[in-house]
Amino acid sequence: MPTQQSTASDTSTSPPQEETDPANGAASADAPGQLAISFDYEKQSGSASNQFAVWIEDMDGNYLQTVFATRWTADGGFETRPDSIALWAEKSGIASMPSYYVDAVSGATPQTGEIAFVWDLTDIDGNTVPPGEYRFFVEGTLRWKNYVLYSGVIEIGNAPATVQADAQYIYEGSGNQSALTSDSPENSMIGAVTASYIPAAE
Question: Residue 114 class from Cβ within 10 Å (0-12 exposed, 13-18 middle, 19+ buried)?
Answer without folding.
Answer: middle
